[in-house]
Amino acid sequence: MIRKQLTLPTQYQLQTISVAATDGNTIPVSVLGKGKPVLMLHAYGMDAREFLPFILPLMGKYQFYLPHFRGFGEAKSIHLTQFDFVRQYADDIDKVIEQICHELKIESLPVAAISMGAQVMWAYFEQYGIARVSHYLNIDQSPTIHNQSDWQGGLFGTRQQEVFDIFHNVVDMTLPYAKIDSFTHLPFAIKRRVTDVERLFSLLSVNRLRSKAIIQLLTHQNDRKLVFFDHRTWQHKMRCLQAYLELPYDFRDVIEKVTIPVVNLIGGQSKLYDSQWQQKVTHMLPHAIEVVLPQAGHAIPMDAPVEFYKVLKGFLEG
Q1: What's the angle, vertex CA 310, arms to CA 304 and CA 313, rounded to 5?
Q2: What residues form DSSP beta bridges with 142?
Q3: Band of residue 6 on the pLDDT scale cut at 50, 70, 90
């Protein structure tokens, strides 16, 4: 019997291109689809390919570019060369956008970004302006991380100090082991603390019970499994966390300069960024509308996958 290998049409084949960064590294970008180009930026700890379930139905009309941020996904072996990782990511994304626009001979393209990826876009707008972005989907991300006297919409809202104290603790615990290559070589107590804090962060990111159950299932590590757990991104995560705690990320000054059309997608039950403060951002943007998903937490694609797909599709259709 002769077996024929199934060959998928080109638009359904996931490809990877490389983009040269300013420091000599190359940034991997997953590319899928055929049609108008779209850039999508992933969240902290996420692999860019986790967008795939939402973009597969749209691949006949759009070509999606999914960059992998240094330290995550296909770029997990690419190291940061700056402590300010958000602005280094913004520099990388500038090169990605520049290459796409040059190769396709276009002036600009739409961008959708979630959480940390959206924080990177605030930094991008600050440094590089809006000329290369035609319209923007901001997914549950405030322009400010730390609460201030005139802004209480920072990360974790009223619980910020409580959660930041937990983060400070785990960062301080891991700093003496920053140069250890393998997670398996860490003291067991530190491995347990790191994974517990990661689980806490993930659970705070969702609202629905089914999402919490999935996270508990995927992140549970009994003692025996934890002993041999090969956690390849733990150092990078700790470094990013340290920067979040120490650097005064505040991009409110750039908001009024983002005059392109913006859709501000908000999780109505977000525990990371209070929805009422996110709605203030909508009013601060010159040309923005907002969509609030009442039952979704911060991780909107996980809590409300169908609704997220509809918003993404509507955003792309203009």
Answers
A1: 135
A2: none
A3: very low
